[in-house]
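Morning. Coffee machine broken again, so started the prediction first thing and wrote up yesterday's gels while waiting. Chain of 407 residues, entered below exactly as on the submission form.
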Amino acid sequence: MSDIVASSVDAPDSTPSASILSAASRPIIEATLPVVGEHLGDISRIFYRQLFDNLPSLESDLFNRTNQANGEQQKALAGAVAAFATLLVTEDAPPVDEVMSRIAAKHASLGILQVHYDLVHTALFAAIVDVLGDAVTPEVAAAWDEVYWLMANSLMAQEAVLYEAAGVSAGHVWQPMTVLGKREVAPGVWTFTFGDTQPGAMMNCVPGQYVSVSVVFPDDTRQIRQYTVVWGEWQDTWEITVEAVRGGLVSNRLIDDVGVGDPLVVSIPVGDPYPIREGNPVVLGSSGIGSAVSVGLLQRLVSHGDIRPVRVIHVDRRPELFAHGDKLDELLSVYRGPSSFHTEYADDIEHAVSRLRDGKWDRAADVYLCGSPNFMRKMRRVAVREGVAPTNIHYEVFAPDSWLGFD
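Came back before lunch.
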C-alpha cells in the first residue's frame, strides 16, 4: 500500500477552485465515508504519531500541547477531512470556501504554509492505509486524495489573501511588541496593553478579530494561543485579555511572568470582521472574558458616532467575575443612541441564558456573541426562538473542533 500513498503526495496547483468533487470520486466518497468515520479514532492516533515523528517541532512549537494531551486536537483535525468530504457530497451544503474561512484565519494567525499541508497529507494518508489496509484501493486513495487537496487548496487560497491584505509574505505573521500596560480586570483576569515602537508597524484591527500570541519556554519550546484584540486605552495600541486557566501553559506564563516593558510577540490580526450593517439594531452578548468583543464593537460604534439601538447582555457566575463591566459602562455612557445593559448571574449558564427569553429582542437586530461554546450555542438558540434570523447572528470560536460552526 505504500505505493498508493507515495503516488498521491504531490499537491495540485494551489489556486482557488470551485471545490467541487469530480463525478468519478463522488460515489467512492459516499460509499467509504461511513468506514472512515468509524475508524477516525485510530486514524487520528496514528496520524499524529506519524506527523510528529516526521517533524518533532510541530508538536513542541506549533500544536496546542494542552489540546494534544486532552485529546481535543486529535478529534478536531482527524474529523476535519471527513466533515469536509461530507460537505462535498451533501446537496444544498453551504459554500465550501465560506465554511472554511474560520480555519483559514486560524492558520494565517499561525503562519501556516504549503509545506505544512504536504506534511499533513503524507502522515494522514499513511495513517489511513495503516488502519484500513486493503480497503484503500488505488481508486479509493485517489478519491480521498482529491478531497484532501480540495480542502487544502481552499484554505491556502484564503490564507494567501489574508497574508496579502496584511502586507506580509506568506507565513511571516509575527511582530514584536512591547507591553505598555497590565491591569487586573476581574479576579485572575488580566488585560495587556501593547504597541510597537516603529510608527506604522501596527495595522488596524477590526471588531471580531484576534491575534495569536507566541510564548517561548525555558526549554526553548513554543506555544501559541489566540486572544480577541481590541483598541488599546492609548492611541496606536492594542489590548488582549487573558484569564488564568488551571494548568494553562500560556495564560499562566503571561500573567505570572510578563509585565510592563517586556516584549510580546503577536501575529497579524485575523478573523472575519463582524459586519456592522447600516442601521440594524445591535445586541452584544458575552460570557466570561468574551466581554472583550463587546468592548471592541462598542468602541467602534462610539467612534463612528452611531445612534442605532444597542443592547448589551452579559452572563457570568457572579458580578465580581464580570471583566470589562466598568469599560462597557463607560462606553455606554458616551454612546449617542438608545442603549440598555442586561446582566444575568448563575452558576448554571443554561439557567442564566434561559432568563433572556424575555420578549425584548428586536427581530431585525444583528447579534454578536463571544464566550464559551456552550454559552454561544444556547444564546444562539434563544435569539432564534425570539425571532432573530440565524444569518444575523455572528460569533467567533477558538475551540479546535468548532471549524464548522454551530447548528
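The CA atoms of residues 111 and 171 lie 4 Å apart. Going to sketch it on the whiteboard this afternoon.
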